[in-house]
Amino acid sequence: MATTTATTLAASAGDGSSPPSRSTVTTIAAQAYHVLKINGARGFENFIRRDELERSEYLNDDYFAIAAHVIIPKEKPSVVVPPSNMHLHYGDLLVSKEGTDVKFLVGGEMFAAHRLVLAARSPVFKAELFRPTKKGTIDAIQIDNMEARVFKALLGFIYTDIWPEIGHGKDNVAMAQQLLAAADRYGLQRLKFVYEDKLCNHIDTCSVSTMLVLVEKHHCCKLKEACSTFLSSMSPPIVEDPNSSIFGSELEKTVSSSENHRSQINRTDIRIQPWQNADV
């Protein structure tokens, strides 16, 4: 609610009577209240010119009066609501391993997690973790074709909705590519789109072949467009590059390798095996 002020300029009269208000004499638009604000203060910057005031009937023996009615609204008390910190609580749950009921063996490393959290975030984990298993066994889940660091980042996203940033190094780009593949593998569409967008800014002659493989395997439409744009703009320099002769063969080899091993890669990579009470 804005502060409003009704202002009246009046001159004192010798006979004690009140002359008409300035608003009555000079009002152009019929307004009883005005919002007054000048450089953070309130009031009319040029309420009346000095020469106009000296000639007016409001000045009497160098004296004039200004009557003002000021309405000051009361500010309602407000409560500052802090931002959500749910991700911190879930992150602590993952780190503390309290209440974990499932273990994963990935790249020689063991990870503990909570079935319900994984199932709530990933339809693939939900299907795998709640399928019927033999009773009387403690299950360890082995995940193949994935690095431990990638699975760790994947768990971090599942629990906190936070993803690791990537730099411009070759290893960082490879990590982002693996995270995109892992996100698609477990139905984490948000994470997949995040890294698809990031990889669009990391396309060069060294990475474009693997990017195209990602496009073909994981249906990355935006990344495909970015690769096409890059190849269209850089084709002449690539052809003139002494090393460009290996570009086509490397791409063909990468795609061919992907095709030859497609059945192996697309196989169910989660295997249930007896767990021997080892510490995580």
UniProtKB/TrEMBL annotation:
<dbReference type="InterPro" id="IPR056423">
    <property type="entry name" value="BACK_BPM_SPOP"/>
</dbReference>
<comment type="pathway">
    <text>Protein modification; protein ubiquitination.</text>
</comment>
<dbReference type="Pfam" id="PF00651">
    <property type="entry name" value="BTB"/>
</dbReference>
<comment type="similarity">
    <text>Belongs to the Tdpoz family.</text>
</comment>
<dbReference type="Pfam" id="PF24570">
    <property type="entry name" value="BACK_BPM_SPOP"/>
</dbReference>
<dbReference type="GO" id="GO:0016567">
    <property type="term" value="P:protein ubiquitination"/>
</dbReference>
<protein>
    <recommendedName>
        <fullName>BTB domain-containing protein</fullName>
    </recommendedName>
</protein>
<feature type="domain" description="BTB">
    <location>
        <begin position="100"/>
        <end position="161"/>
    </location>
</feature>
<dbReference type="InterPro" id="IPR000210">
    <property type="entry name" value="BTB/POZ_dom"/>
</dbReference>
<dbReference type="InterPro" id="IPR011333">
    <property type="entry name" value="SKP1/BTB/POZ_sf"/>
</dbReference>
<feature type="region of interest" description="Disordered">
    <location>
        <begin position="1"/>
        <end position="23"/>
    </location>
</feature>
<dbReference type="InterPro" id="IPR045005">
    <property type="entry name" value="BPM1-6"/>
</dbReference>
<dbReference type="InterPro" id="IPR002083">
    <property type="entry name" value="MATH/TRAF_dom"/>
</dbReference>
